[in-house]
Amino acid sequence: MLEVSMNNLQFSYDKELVLDGVNYKARAGKFVCILGLSGCGKSTLLRLIGGLEKSNPEQLLVDGKPVYGPSLDRAMVFQDYGLFPWMTAGENICIALKQKYKTWDKHQRKEVALKWVNNLGLDEELYDKLPLNLSGGQRQRFATARAFALDAPLLLMDEPFGALDAVTSALLQDTVLELWQKEKENRKTIFFVTHSVDEALLLATDILVLGQAPSKIIYTHSFTEETKPRRETLYTDPAVLDLRNRLTKIINDEIAEKAYRLHEQKMNITDSENNKSVKKHIA
Amino acid sequence: MLKVIKDYGSIILIGVCILIGYILLTDGFAVLSSFLFPSIFDVLKLIPEYINQLFAGLKSSLYLLVTAYVLALVCAIALGTLIGLKSGLRKNATPYINAFSAIPVPLLTPYAINLFPTFKAASIFLIWLAAFWVILGTTIGAVMSIDKRYLENAATLEMPRLEKLFRVILPAASPAILVGCSVALTLSFMMLAVAEMFGASSGMAYFVQYYSDFARFDLVMLGFLFTAAVLVFIMYIFDKIKHRILHWTINN
Ligand SMILES: Nc1ncnc2c1ncn2[C@@H]1O[C@H](COP(=O)(O)OP(=O)(O)OP(=O)(O)O)[C@@H](O)[C@H]1O
Ligand SMILES: [Mg+2]
């Protein structure tokens, strides 16, 4: 439900510039999918919105306000490490609820946690298991359940289903989409990082492609309520097929360019080494 | 019963082998001097007569050990967590911690005796100090190297400080802290022996010390065996507690 706007957003780790002027405005209730090559700064962008990295207060606004740090209003789902391993999966949800709803007692927390466990298609007997004893997919589902249970108006998901098999990730995609759609006018704003063009097509109302670091947005696409692809039309609708081709081409061009650049660098290095050895020879 | 044999069978077997080895070396072939290494059967015969004395010793030793160790545990973990979390404090305190922890604690015995009013207080101080440095060092390291992602996870939940400390920081650091705790426990035993060599009137190490002055090596041997049994038992309890705390890690 929160609006996110980036005005020429720049960010660097130490001296390495990662984001170089990202301009984007996500209206409240949008499902924004971010595509881009590995290392281009997708996670960094999400961490900035989440308040885990410091941003310039003029360059990034959430709900019209600068981001000064993490907040319960911005729930995050990370790949692999969303749960504390020393608590049971259920306790992980409950401890989050405890921070958000300070007046609830234990039973209320457990009741709501169990509701979300069910919503994500998890068996209730998994509730008391340690994350260690869950499968990767089950862990991701608990992490997602926790984020939804917090009912935050802004949800930040960093490749949450990246490591799962096709069937499991399809199930989770459908679940997330359904949970998001269900809320009608009160839809959460979601930022969702993914590697998969198909995942983005299926989930997004808006797709962003980030270029290589230091990156800018190199492509955006918005769907309307009518043009938004559904799983059934994902491989048949000509407009969707066309868009998939375009996105794939953009990403492949990026890959080709990156490969070329790496090749050049390598050649330069070997060249200079050759020069050195030639010089040695002459000397 | 069957389960006990299954779980501890090999351990018992090794113990029996050592025992048989000892019997062969003493009673069997008389390889070892029977003065320094008395027959195990003679030693066992002494139990009824000395059992009360041994248990009185155990009681006074345990009092020193437990008091000092628990105090060290609380102080070192509290201080270590604080120093581990505050990088400024850590930077300034580290050289001094390194310098002080390098002093062998037994060398401080004369100071302890002079500074503390009673033998008990002095002993507790020495054992405390030995355990303290080890736990402090490992706690600082453990807290410092907590996976940043756990802290970020806690931050996104806006966890209050105290809850973050007990539900995130200490659990995340506990595997490394417990390694320090078990080293500290072993060190405490050694310091206990040192501490009981002066001024004590009972205790497990005192028992051994006292009878070795009279060259009663059968009683010395009895003292050793008793102490060893106590150590094995304490370590067993310690391991149980450790497994309890670390049940969430892969190795448990
Ligand atoms: N904590 C950090 N300190 C310094 N540099 C970092 C840090 N985190 C990321 N980087 C650098 O920032 C760049 C962007 O990283 P980021 O994690 O945002 O990429 P990404 O798009 O999420 O990649 P992937 O798809 O592989 O997850 C990379 O070049 C990375 O090396
Ligand atoms: Mg990433």
Description:
The complex is a heterodimer of chains A (283) and B (252). By secondary structure, chain A is α/β, with parallel strands linked by helices. Chain A folds into two domains: 4-73 and 152-233, Rossmann fold (3-Layer(aba) Sandwich), CATH 3.40.50.300; 86-151, no CATH class. Chain A has seven helices and ten strands. In chain A, strands 6-7-8-3-9-10 form a six-stranded mixed sheet, with helices on both faces. In chain A, strands 2-1-4-5 form a four-stranded antiparallel sheet, covered by helices on one side. In chain A, helix 3 crosses helix 4. The longest helix of chain A has 45 residues, at 238-282. The radius of gyration of chain A is 22 Å and the shape is globular. In chain A, 37% of the residues are buried. By secondary structure, chain B is mainly alpha-helical. Chain B folds into two domains: 1-32; 38-245, MetI-like (MetI-like fold, Orthogonal Bundle), CATH 1.10.3720. Chain B has ten helices and no strands. The model of chain B has no long low-confidence stretch (mean pLDDT 91). Classes of the chains: A alpha/beta (283), B mainly alpha (252). The interface between A and B is medium-sized, with 23 and 20 residues. Residues 42-43, 158 of chain A line the site of magnesium ion.
